[in-house]
Amino acid sequence: MPFEALDPLLHSQLRLAVMSLLISVESADFVYIKEQTGATAGNLSVQIDKLSSAGYISVEKKFEGKKPKTTCKITQTGVDAFENYVKNIQQYLKP
Amino acid sequence: MPFEALDPLLHSQLRLAVMSLLISVESADFVYIKEQTGATAGNLSVQIDKLSSAGYISVEKKFEGKKPKTTCKITQTGVDAFENYVKNIQQYLKP
DNA sequence: TAAAGTAGTTTATATTATAAACCAAATGAA
DNA sequence: TTCATTTGGTTTATAATATAAACTACTTTA
Question: A51 to chain B, minimum CA–CA distance in Å?
Answer without folding.
Answer: 16
